[in-house]
Amino acid sequence: QVQFVESGGGLVQPGGSLRLSCAASGFTFDSHAIGWFRQAPGKEREGVSCITSSDVSTYYSESVKGRFTISRDNAKNTVYLQMNSLKPEDTAVYYCAATYYTRRYIDRCRAHDYDYWGQGTQVTVSS
What we know:
The protein is mainly β. It has no helices and 11 strands. The termini are far apart.
């Protein structure tokens, strides 16, 4: 049974930082790309950042490039999203997701490509 445990969300002031974690089980973690997605009220789910199974290649949306960093620890079946310089427009529910992907490079991060989804964690950026 595929399971994700997401953590690290919360309330932070603009300019602050948060680190999201996604611990996965129930599938072969090191043969799956992992993505972080977010959805704000009234908006479509957006791909924030994705990382290949081998940690060789990453993708970032333009809205977070330079501020967010995705990483993974295959020994711990865990993916992280370090979020710095947070802005109010980063407020959303953040989801991690997985899809079977063993190519060396990744150049997109689209929700409909991902098969397994976590329950989401709320991130609120507000003063």
